[in-house]
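ENTRY TYPE: protein
WANTED: fold as tokens:
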Amino acid sequence: MRVNTYLKIILSILLVSFISCGKSMTDPNNTTNTNNTIKIEYPIYLNYGSKGSTINSYEELESLWRNTVRNKTVYADNSCSDSAITGAFKDDANYYETKYESSNKARTVLVKCAAKELNGKNYIAGVYYDNYNQYNMPNDWRLIVIGDDGAEHAWYGGGRDRNNIPNENTAWTYYTFRFGYLKNY
């Protein structure tokens, strides 16, 4: 009788564990809606920062992204104070971090542009290769979107191979923290 009771308890615990562990371990408030980039068919309406536009070609898409981030300071928080500066996107639209190579070498390099859904809206995204993987993560690729409030939303994915450039089938995982904030976007 006692063994039967213990067996029922153990089975109940296993059942509860199975049900709760079957749920996604990612952010429960994830409003990114998709793990992949959007397959672009031109013309397409995309947002970039607090603006939006109908885009007719890849060249226009890339130009809008570059102009959104070019020569912009990145801040750790939305106060955008001088003490919160973490780095900057320079004229080449690459990101230079103050603590990486004293901002003399790009921390992340823009490889291409894409489109990504965030909070029910489609945005222009920059696909970056990270030259400094400080935590030895399994992915060196970053997908960056500048949201309506100037926040830098980011995803990681695509592995570590610099020559295997992510595409619309790449699975991206959303970072739950902001990479930074832009003052003028």
